C-alpha cells in the first residue's frame, strides 16, 4: 500500500515560481510541501535577469539583500549599429531602467541556480526542504461542488512516484491529498497537460543561441547591457556576476535544423556548438574582438515561442504558474520575473482563504490578474523580438530597424518591462464586503489603485529614523491599514479633531478593527507634520499600537 | 613543565579593543592569539553607542551590515530644561549628528555583548576563537636592542594561567613567546600596571547612575537621545535596540558613598539600587511619567574618571589600547569607539611591519596619533561633563547652564564626538622613503591629509554602477593608490597624454609599482568624465588592472 498523507498546498516544481510559492506559504505558516523531479537544483545557465519590481518583491520577503550582494547590476544600456566604415559603432547609451519610481533603478543578473539557492536557504531556515527526485503520475480533482467550495476540504488527490527508490520491493508511489495544488512545472508542464489546458499562441521563426563565458575583449561596453545590430546579425550582451557575460546570438535557418514536427531545434542534426556560436558573435562584434578566457560555462539554442495558457486554474483548486502558463523570449528578461510574480500573487490569497480571512472566490482574481499580464507580456515580447531580430537600417537596407526606432521602443516599454508598470484592473474581492471598493482612485492623487505602493522614504515620528515605506509593508500576509492623517502639528485643531473622530470610529466595538480578529490588520499612520514639531504621543493610541508604527 | 609556544601577536583582553585587534590581524593573515579572563562574553549593559566614524571603520572590515541590522539608530536629540510652570519642557530638537560629511549620519546603540558577538562570529569564520578563561601572570620584555629592532624576533615572554583547569595535577600555566603583545585589558589593565605606565588625570566629583529598562511612559522623546536638565538633577536618555532605553541619572553625594581610598563607589554602603535610580529619574521627568515595563536589564553607578596613560607602548613591542590607556565619562559615548579605533590604527601598522612592508619604527606613530586623540577626548569630555552635570539656568539660578550654551557646546563638539573630525598630525613614516611626504595638502583641495577619506559616491566606468569610495578602499591591509586623472573624455588630448605619461612612469621597471612586490598596492583610478562619454578601455592598462577598478 502506498503511504497516504494530507497537506494544505502541494507545489509541483522547484523552479523560481514553485520556490517563491513554497517559501511564501511556509513563511505565512501554511502547511506546504514542494517536490521536484530533478535530483539537484540548477547549477548554471537558464534565466538570470531580475527586474526592478521583482527586486522589490524579493525585498518584501527579506530576500533582496543576498541577491544584491551576489548579483551583478546593469545600470546602463548601450546600442550598437552598423558603421558607415564597416563593422559596428556605438550609436547611444542610456539608463537601463527609465521608470522614474523604481526603488532599485537597475537590473540584477545572477544565474538561476544562485537565485534558487536564495529561496532554498530561506526555506531551510523556515524548516522546509524540496522533496526530490519525485514526479507526479496522477491527479484527480473532486467533482463534489460542496467539497470544492469548502477551503478546508482536500479535493485534490495526487499520486507521486519517488525516482530514487531502490528496486528491492520498496513501494515508490505515494498518495497526497491536498487542499490546493500549484503546478509550477515548467514549459512542458505535466499539470497543464493533465488538466487539458490549451496554450494559445505560436512559435516564431527567430532562432537564437546563448553562450555564458568569461570574455577577453576590447569592447568598451562589455559590462553594460548591449543591443548590437550588425549587418552580420544581432547580438545582445548581458553582463553577469563576477567576470561572466552572457551573449544572445541571432542565428539563421541555415545554421540550425528545426524539427518540423515538434518545432524544436534538432540538436542531433544541428552542427552548431558553443564555438560556432562564438564565431557568429565575433562577426557581429567586428571591428572589436572577443575571445573566451577559459571554458564556456553554459550554452543553448532556442526558438522563440510566445504562448499563454487559456486557463490558469481548474476550480481554483489546481493552479498553474510560471512557464507552465506562459512562454516568451528570454531576451527581454521577463520569464523568471513573471513566474515569481505569478506565485507572489497567489501566496497571500491562498493564505487568507486557508485562514478563513477571505472567501475562496478571491482565488479567481489570480487568473484574472496574471493571465491579462501574461498576454500583455506576449504583446510586448512580439514587438520587441521583431525589432531586435530584424535587420538594422543601413544605406543598403533602408527599411531596416533604425537606432531611433529601437531606442523609442526600448524606452516606451521601459515601465512595463521593469515590472513597475503592472496595473491590475478593478476586480471585486467579495470576501471582505466592507472594504471591497478598490475603485476610489479619486481619493488618492499620487498612488494608482491597482499598482504597487510607490516607494518613498518617510521619517519615523518617534525617533526621526528614515524608512522606505515598502519596508514597513512587508509581504507578511497581513492586511495593511495605512492612515494618512495630514498635518496634525501645533495649532491644527480641526485636523486633530478629525483624526480623533476617525480613531474613535476605528476603535469602537462595531468599528473595522474590532470586527476582525487580532492580527488581521497592521496599522501604519503617516503624518504630514514636520518631524521637529510632531510628538508621536499626540496621536490617538489606536493609530499607534507601538511607537514604531 | 608548562607548554611553550610562539605567536606573532598575543592580544590580552577580548573587549571591543582586543576583539577589533584580533579580527583585523587574523583577516590580514597574521598569526594572532587572543585570551580573556572571563569565561563568557558580556551579556548586557556596558558601553553601547557606536559613533558615525566607527560605523565607517566597521564597514571597512565588512562588519557594519549586521550592526545596522541589529542596532537602534539615534537621528534626533531633544533638549529639556526647567519650565516656568515647574517640571521640564522641551526647549529644542536638533539632528543628533551635525557633521556634514558623515556617511552614516546617526549613532547606533546596541549592547556591548551584541557588538562583541559581531567580532566573535566574524573571527570564528576566519578560524579564530578567544581562549578563555585565562589570565596573564608574568610578562618579560627582552633588553637586547638587536632583538627589539628585529620584527621577526620574539622579545616578549608571557606566562599565562588557565583558570578552568582541574586540580588533578594538570599544569595550568603556559609560556607564550610573542613578537608583539597588545594589552586591551580594560581600565584596571594588568599589562599597564606590569609595565609601570602611569595614568595622568583625575577623578571628578560627578556621580552617575545607569539603568537599562523597557519604559512605560508618556514622554514624547523616549526614542530620541535626550539631555534633560531639571532642577532635580540631570538625566540623559539613550534609546536602545528593541524597546529598551538607557537612562543616565545624575546622583548627589548624599545618595552615594564613595570610598575615599579607592575613589570608587562603595556598593556595600551605598543604599542605592535600580529602584532608587528610577525614583531619582522620575523627579527629573516630571511632569512626564516613567515606569518600568518588566525587569530592569542592567544597572550601575560610577564616578567619572578622566585619565590618559603617559605611554601607549614599551619599545613598540608591548602596546596598551582602549580603556587600558584612557578613561572618560560614558555619556558622550566615546569610550568603546576610542577603544576600537585604537586597535584599528594598530592593525595595519603591525601587519605591514610583520610582512616587511614597513620599518618597525612605523609603530611609533600609534602612540603619537592615538595619545593625542585621547588627550583631546578628555578635554572635550571635561567641558561636556561639566556642562551636563551643572545646574540648569532658571530664574532662581541665573549662573546655571542655559539651553543655548549647552546646545552650542553640543554642536561645536559635534564633528569631534562623532569621530569624523579625527585629524592626525604629520608624522614621518620612515619605512617607505619615497612616499613619506604626507604634507602635500596644497595638492588636494577637498580631502584633508591626515583625516579619513571623504565618503563620496562614484559611478564605475565599465558598468555605470554607483559605489561609495569608502567601500572601494576597504581595511584589507593593502596600500591604496588612488589616481585622480581628471577629464579624459573625447577631445581632452592634453590630459590623455599626461595620464599616458603617468601610466608609463608607474609601470616601468624603476616605477613605483615595480619596486614593490605584487599585491602591495591596490590601484583605483577616478575620472572626471561624464559616464556616457567614457570608455574604461581608453585608460592605460596599468591604471585599470581589472574592469572593476
Describe the model:
2 copies of one chain form a homodimer. Chain A has 3 domains: 3-69 and 109-199 and 307-366, FAD/NAD(P)-binding domain (3-Layer(bba) Sandwich), CATH 3.50.50; 202-305 and 378-417, D-Amino Acid Oxidase, Chain A, domain 2 (2-Layer Sandwich); 456-543, Phenol hydroxylase, C-terminal dimerisation domain (Glutaredoxin, 3-Layer(aba) Sandwich), CATH 3.40.30.20. Helix content of chain A is 27%, strand content 26%. Chain A contains 14 helices and 24 strands. Chain A has an 8-stranded mixed beta sheet. In chain A, strands 1, 2, 8, 9, 10, 18 and 19 form a 7-stranded mixed beta sheet that branches. In chain A, a hairpin with a 2-residue loop joins strand 13 and strand 14. In chain A, 42% of the residues are buried. Chain A binds chain B through residues 72-76, 93, 106, 218-224, 239, 243, 459, 462-466, 531-532, 535-538, 547, and chain B through 72-76, 93, 106, 218-224, 239, 243, 459, 462-466, 531-532, 535-538, 547. Chains A, B: Belongs to the PheA/TfdB FAD monooxygenase family. Chains A, B: Keywords: FAD, Flavoprotein, Oxidoreductase. Chains A, B: Residues 6-380 form the FAD-binding domain. Chains A, B: Residues 422-546 form the Phenol hydroxylase-like C-terminal dimerisation domain.
Amino acid at each position: 500500500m502506498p503511504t497516504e498523507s494530507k497537506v494544505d498546498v502541494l507545489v509541483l516544481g522547484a523552479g523560481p515560481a514553485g520556490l517563491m510559492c513554497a517559501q511564501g506559504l511556509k513563511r505565512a505558516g501554511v502547511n506546504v510541501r514542494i517536490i521536484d523531479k530533478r535530483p539537484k537544483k540548477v547549477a548554471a545557465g537558464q534565466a538570470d535577469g531580475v527586474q526592478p519590481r521583482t527586486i522589490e518583491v524579493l525585498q518584501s520577503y527579506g530576500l533582496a539583500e543576498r541577491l544584491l550582494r551576489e548579483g551583478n547590476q546593469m545600470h546602463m544600456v548601450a546600442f550598437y549599429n552598423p558603421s558607415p566604415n564597416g563593422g559596428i559603432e556605438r550609436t547611444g547609451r542610456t539608463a537601463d531602467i527609465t521608470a522614474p519610481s523604481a526603488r532599485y533603478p537597475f537590473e540584477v543578473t545572477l544565474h538561476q541556480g544562485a537565485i534558487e539557492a536564495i529561496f532554498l536557504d530561506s526555506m531551510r531556515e523556515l524548516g522546509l526542504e524540496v522533496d526530490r527526485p519525485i514526479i507526479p503520475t496522477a491527479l484527480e480533482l473532486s467533482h463534489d461542488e460542496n467539497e470544492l467550495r469548502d477551503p478546508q476540504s482536500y479535493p485534490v488527490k495526487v499520486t507521486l512516484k519517488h525516482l530514487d527508490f531502490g528496486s528491492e520491493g520498496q513501494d515508490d508511489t505515494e498518495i497526497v491529498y491536498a487542499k490546493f495544488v500549484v503546478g509550477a512545472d515548467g514549459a512542458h508542464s505535466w499539470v497543464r497537460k493533465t488538466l487539458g489546458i490549451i496554450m494559445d499562441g505560436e512559435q516564431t521563426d527567430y532562432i537564437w543561441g546563448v553562450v555564458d563565458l568569461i570574455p577577453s575583449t576590447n569592447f568598451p561596453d562589455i559590462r553594460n547591457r548591449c543591443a548590437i545590430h550588425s549587418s552580420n546579425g544581432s547580438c545582445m550582451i548581458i553582463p553577469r556576476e563576477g567576470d561572466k557575460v552572457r551573449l544572445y546570438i541571432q542565428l539563421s535557418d541555415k545554421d540550425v535544423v528545426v524539427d518540423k514536427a515538434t518545432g524544436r531545434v534538432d540538436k542531433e542534426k544541428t552542427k552548431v556548438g558553443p564555438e560556432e556560436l562564438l564565431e557568429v558573435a565575433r562577426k557581429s562584434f567586428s571591428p572589436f574582438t572577443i575571445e573566451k578566457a577559459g571554458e564556456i560555462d553554459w550554452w543553448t539554442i532556442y526558438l522563440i515561442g510566445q504562448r499563454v495558457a487559456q486557463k490558469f486554474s481548474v476550480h481554483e483548486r489546481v493552479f498553474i504558474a510560471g512557464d507552465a502558463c506562459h512562454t516568451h523570449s528570454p531576451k527581454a528578461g521577463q520569464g523568471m520575473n513573471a513566474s515569481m510574480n505569478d506565485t507572489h500573487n497567489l501566496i497571500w490569497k491562498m493564505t487568507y482563504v486557508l485562514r478563513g480571512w477571505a472567501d475562496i472566490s478571491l482565488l479567481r482574481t489570480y487568473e484574472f490578474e496574471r493571465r491579462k499580464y501574461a498576454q500583455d507580456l506576449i504583446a510586448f515580447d512580439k514587438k520587441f523580438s521583431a525589432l531586435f531580430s530584424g535587420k538594422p537600417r543601413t544605406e543598403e537596407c533602408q527599411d531596416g530597424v533604425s537606432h531611433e526606432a529601437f531606442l523609442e521602443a526600448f524606452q516606451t516599454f521601459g515601465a512595463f518591462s521593469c515590472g513597475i508598470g503592472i496595473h491590475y484592473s478593478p476586480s471585486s474581492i467579495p470576501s471582505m464586503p466592507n472594504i471591497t471598493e478598490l475603485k476610489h482612485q479619486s481619493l488618492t492623487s499620487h498612488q494608482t489603485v491597482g499598482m504597487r505602493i510607490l516607494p518613498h522614504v518617510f521619517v519615523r515620528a518617534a525617533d526621526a529614523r528614515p524608512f522606505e515605506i515598502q519596508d514597513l509593508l512587508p509581504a507578511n500576509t497581513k492586511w495593511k491599514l495605512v492612515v494618512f492623517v495630514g498635518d496634525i502639528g501645533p495649532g491644527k485643531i480641526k485636523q486633530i479633531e478629525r483624526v480623533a473622530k476617525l480613531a474613535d470610529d476605528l476603535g469602537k466595538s462595531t468599528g473595522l478593527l474590532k470586527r476582525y480578529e487580532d492580527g488581521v490588520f497592521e496599522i501604519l499612520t503617516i503624518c504630514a507634520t514636520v518631524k521637529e514639531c510632531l510628538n508621536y504621543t499626540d496621536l490617538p493610541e489606536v493609530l499607534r499600537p507601538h511607537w514604531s508604527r
